# Entry
Amino acid sequence: MADIIIIGAGPAGGSAAIFSAKAGKETIVIDSNASMTKRAWIENHYGVKEIAGPELLQTGREQAEKFGAVFVEDKVIGITSDSNSVKVSTESGQSYEAAHVILATGVSTELASTIGLKLKDGVEPRIKTIVEVDAEGRTSLPRVWATGTIAGVSVHTIITAGDGARVAIGVISSLNGTRYVDHDVIK
# Structure
């Protein structure tokens, strides 16, 4: 059983993967390769002068893999959750289990609706529906969290990436039983 499964490898999911893997948590990222960031040109991401979306996604993936995150290309079609774990099933017939799942599916609420998460109206232009989450990113299902655009934050890559890190820190803290902080320093 993994510690964390992240569904979606856009900026929110990728950032969550970096933080969770760097924290030493067994991290699996399942991505259907449909991120809208693949079509983006970005000039408003702090620390990056300009970058094509596919390059941003690849760089994030490489960072997460450096810390041990495992990426799987597949489409998640089901999630079941109980008080002990979360089980994820995919279109290819694979199944995975983790202590927690982070949903980072961008604008797509198809999976969230299928598994019965509470949804509500979005406020971002062109984002009609989002998953209802608490202040930490928890959804209506135990051990299932949501981050990024699907959780109601702005679609800008820097904002969704930051939200992915924020939610991952909450999940890591939950696993550790104490608040997790990770500060790198120049050596």
